[in-house]
Amino acid sequence: MLTTNEPVPDDMSLCCSTYDVAVVGGGIVGLASARELILRHPTLSFILLEKEKDLAVHQSGHNSGVIHSGIYYTPGSLKARLCGKGTTMAYEYLDKKGLPYKRCGKLIVAVEREEIPRLKALYERGQKNNVRDLTMIDAKGIREREPYCRGLMALDSPYTGIVDWRLVSLAYAKDFQEAGGTVVTEYEASDMAMVKESPAGNTDGIKYPIVIRDSKGKEVRCRYVLTCGGLYSDRLSQISGCSPDPRIVPFRGDYLVLKPEKHYLVRGNIYPVPDPKFPFLGVHFTPRMDGSVWLGPNAVLAFKREGYKLYDFDARDFVDALSFRGLQKLVMNNLVYGVGEMYRGVFIGAQVNILKKFIPELSLNDVLRGPAGVRAQALDRDGNLVDDFVFDVGVGDVGSRVLHVRNAPSPAATSSLAIAEMVADEVERRFSL
Ligand SMILES: Cc1cc2nc3c(=O)[nH]c(=O)nc-3n(C[C@H](O)[C@H](O)[C@H](O)COP(=O)(O)OP(=O)(O)OC[C@H]3O[C@@H](n4cnc5c(N)ncnc54)[C@H](O)[C@@H]3O)c2cc1C
């Protein structure tokens, strides 16, 4: 997992243990927010705590790697604004840092007549969202852009790109460290409490009244805490006394990969017209920065929050999910779709049949099983998918000092720099930094 850009985590035993602000969660949202905060407040001390050995190895390191241009979202909504702004900021950041990306574009292709009105509505949305250079193209235009793709009509978004979001996360970490921030990995925050006494040998009184303990008994003291826990955002909230709702329900997305000799079939991103009933964008063809091509992901309920294999299982995650009324309702309302997704996850021929609607030349022999990602889907008790940004503050003594990012809706990687600005504004407002 190590790359040349990998920041070296600070050694906890060499660090001091008191900080103005602790950020828990070293995914792209936590790292971008920590970076933004330290750039705004260079005289304060910051620490970022991550439970894994490496940074950004969950959602931020297991995704499609697309720089979305912001077509899909309700005009004027927070999500639309964050994505629009975030895309521009992402390209500027990548250029400034010299990080590799490709602006290879994207087609959203209608293959059935009944999809055309939805495609046109999407075009209008994209225009209202000020997506750059968006056009509608016909079957001939599709063939010019993607010679092996067939369709009746398509939305052409040349502004869409691809990047390795993990590499971007690591660049944020480097900025944070260079500005004086401390990064500690293998530190799983498992308890948060208000303390009344100073640590031994410390004369700071109760200047740092929050203690964050890890599962091995180590302690970090701080004035304020921000959590950005991704798949564990609900559990991190619970440890500061918050309600577990909205819960996180993990949806695994399995990818197929094209065999190298078939890479010529795909030039840029090829997406279906999304079904408005579901929050996911549908299985797509995605070229990767390393030259490979991924097909997918599907979306199946995962039996383990950070489980990337078909049969990964965790008893607590499983019981938590199945005993949650919201999930029971969601499953009942989407039984047919859910079973179909599971079927296509096991029998990849069924997945290939869907993909063949776009590239008829594709066959089962051209694909292999590939990697997977697990999405943190927030769900309320009535089974509604929470598709908006949710902040929550701790309760009791810690309340005024702990802020949780409960849900950073996809595409949070694309929007990360804009999200970080919003999170930093919120931190400043709540904590009077
Ligand atoms: C299959 C898939 C495809 C996607 N495709 C795209 C795409 O193409 N473009 C795009 O923009 N977005 C995409 N997304 C969405 C994007 O990847 C996520 O929105 C984003 O990575 C979320 O970042 P995060 O920091 O919130 O979560 P994460 O990256 O999951 O980070 C959370 C971190 O918190 C840590 N943590 C949790 N609990 C604790 C604890 N107790 N103590 C310490 N650390 C803790 C975890 O170990 C983890 O590192 C995709 C997501 C998935 C799953």
From TrEMBL:
Domain of life, per the record? Eukaryota
Q: Can you state which reaction this protein catalyses?
A: (S)-2-hydroxyglutarate + A = 2-oxoglutarate + AH2
Cofactor(s) listed: FAD
EC number(s) in its UniProt entry?
1.1.99.2
Molecular function (GO) terms listed? Answer: (S)-2-hydroxyglutarate dehydrogenase activity
Q: NCBIfam families annotated for this entry?
A: PRK11728.1 (NF008726)
Q: Which family does it belong to?
A: Belongs to the L2HGDH family.
Q: What is this protein called?
A: L-2-hydroxyglutarate dehydrogenase, mitochondrial
List the source organism.
Answer: Salmo trutta (Brown trout)
Taxonomy-wise, where does this protein's organism fall, top ranks first? Eukaryota, Metazoa, Chordata, Craniata, Vertebrata
Q: Which gene encodes it?
A: L2HGDH
